[in-house]
Amino acid sequence: MSKKLYITGIVVAALSIWIGTRWNTWFGNPPEPPYTTSTAPHHILLTFGQDQNSRIICWQAGEEIDRLQSLIYKDESDSTAINVENPKAILDSTRGGKVAFYSVTLQSLKSGHKYSYCIKPVGVDDAPWYSFEMPKDSQPEHSFIFFGDVQDSVGGISKSVFKHVANTHSNADFWLFGGDLIERPISCYWDLVFNDLDSIAQCKPMLAIAGNHEYLKGIRRTLDSRFGNTFQYFQTSKVGENHVYRLDYNGASLFLLDSNVDSWQLTDQADWLEKNLKNCPADNWKIVVLHHPLHSNKGAYYNLPVKWAFKSLVEDLGVHLVLSGHEHVYARYNEKEKRKDTTAIDKLPLYIDSYCSPKHYRLYFDEPEDRIGTDGRFYQKITFNEDALMIETFDAANNGQLYDKVMLDRSESKPCSVEEFGTSLDPQQVRMSDWYRTVKKPKRVKEYEDDIKKWEMSQK
Questions:
Q1: Coil, strand, or helix at residue 447?
Q2: Are 379 and 403 spatial neighbours (Cβ–Cβ below 8 Å)?
Q3: Which one of 35, 189, 268, 387 has the largest count of C-beta atoms within 10 Å of its C-beta?
Q4: Nearest to 59 by CA among 196, 198, 157
Q5: Is the pLDDT of residue 78 over 90?
Q6: Distance of CA 183 to the CA centre of its chain
Q7: At 29, is the secondary structure helix, strand, or coil?
């Protein structure tokens, strides 16, 4: 009996030491330095309201509610300027300070019209004007840009990446971020994001979902309040504490989820997703966006609670595309169903996991992805019309070169077919990044090097 107690004591002690070494990684947060908030309007962001014809303009100013804030906007086809006084206001208290958020929702905007606006508190003589255009409902196709994890650091290249994307794909209707837009829920990282998106976020609608880096760690994680106060469409669409949002947009339906919540909360999101998929227009492209991939490059046993909650829904209810991030690799996959005549039939949805971050994690080679990549700054342009949905992946770290391309085509048959173009492009980019060599232990580096060599041999 004493021997059993002795062994049990050793096991408990070893486990306690191990937990102690991991405690801060699991539950700790870097402190947020005290900050002050400028009284001048800043962090201005354009996003969607509750439908494709509405826009929310959000900004920050000061550390207390100022009832003299106002927004002026006008339809460029009409010289009449409308002054919106007393905008919606929220005072947000964070770990490092206070910040007042303001927003104005513009409803029933007209297809194809250009609008201008400025944020001009009463008594301020001059303020910059910004403009945005409403896409034409009648245009032959629509598109948006998707970024996986960004979470850049001061001195990073995200500003130049965003500028390149804005110039190269100026016709994209909006941008969508798949979580981990910031490195940590700290004021300086929010400042960095808005600095990197300056002159873009004011004029191009921005959507985002929460990633784990938007959360404060703890026994129970909490979403940084600045996230919901920045992307204010969640305030009328969320279910309980679940930040979910649906946008029906010119023939596509986007379903934004939060896969970072505690596992028992995922049930509420699954119910919401099932209900919304079932009442979605039958001919709309159905696109689900969540941070944790339902098909993980790391293997079948990763992200199990998220898979249990959503995977059968996206497979059974006609979802065409699932976009995700989190794993800091590029991986595209869709299942193939073998028929008796040994030919393969593509099954949907198409899963794409992507990232645009300076942190490059390792690839695993045991999963049957159709195309993989790492050590790049990847982003997607998704273009759709009635008959086809095209996903093009570009590498901003390689002069914006086209890295992957795949199309869902339903022009002649339903369900739609998957047309593969990636094999006609340059070879897959599988290499160890300098970041990985720097931050990982030599043993991990050697293991990854060996795995890459084995994979390269298998491709010959």
A1: helix
A2: no
A3: 189
A4: 198
A5: no
A6: 13
A7: coil
Residues 58 and 199 in one domain: no
What distance in Å separates the CA atoms of residue 145 and residue 257, rounded to the nearest whole number?
18
Report, as an integer, the average pLDDT of 161-179.
96
- In this structure, what token pair is assigned to residue 134? 């409403």
DSSP string of 284-305? SEEEEE-SS-SS-TT-TTTTHH
Tokens, residue 273:
């997703």
Q: Round to whole Å and give the CA distance between 101 and 60.
A: 5
Domain range enclosing 66: 42-133
Tally of domains within the chain? 2
Q: How large is the average pLDDT for residues 102-127?
A: 91
Q: Are residues 299 and 332 in the same domain?
A: yes
Exposure string for 393-423, b = 16+ CB within 10 A, e = fewer: bbbbbeebeebbbbbbebeeeeebebeeebe
Q: At 460, is the secondary structure helix, strand, or coil? A: coil
Q: Tokens standing for 422?
A: 């990636």
What is the Cα–Cα distance from 266 to 262, expressed in whole angstroms? 7
pLDDT digits (tens, 9 = 90+) for 421-447: 877 888 899 999 999 999 999 999 999
Full-model pTM: 0.93
CATH number for position 120:
2.60.40.380
